[in-house]
Specification:
4-stranded antiparallel β-sheet; Immunoglobulin-like; 3-stranded mixed β-sheet
């Protein structure tokens, strides 16, 4: 019986220590990242859904991430503070790279990316020879 009581005391002590171990608060975690909030639009300012937005860090060796714009053309990502290259693409439009997008800890960075349609190919009439 005494062994069982000691086992329970040890177990409760370990549990109490586990509860007392400091863990990062949600505020700390929130401040350790920044947020990139963006929208992809066409030349007329209409939102483009389904655009692929690639976010690549310039300074770090962390891998790039790929996002997709929603039906309102919006995209969002939590990122480590730093400088990023953002590239938006959608079939039928020219890619739109954005260099030096800066993400700061605890802050939100807004980005509007405009994709332009390529110029229509020039059609030359064929003459009769």
């Amino acid at each position: 019986m005494r062994r069982m009581v000691l086992s329970w005391i040890a177990l409760l002590s370990l549990a109490a220590l586990g509860c007392a171990t400091p863990t990062p608060s949600s505020t700390t975690l929130r401040e350790a990242t920044g947020t990139l909030n963006g929208v992809v639009v066409d030349q007329a300012g209409r939102p483009l859904s389904g655009a692929v937005v690639t976010v690549a860090p310039i300074d770090a060796s962390t891998p790039q991430i790929a996002l997709q714009s929603n039906t309102g053309g919006k995209f969002s990502a939590k990122l480590a503070p730093g400088r990023y290259r953002v590239l938006a693409s959608l079939p039928g439009y020219r890619e739109s790279p954005r260099e030096e997008v800066v993400i700061a800890a605890g802050e939100s960075t807004g980005l509007r990316v405009m994709l332009t349609a390529p110029a229509a190919p020039e059609v030359l009439p064929l003459g009769r020879g």
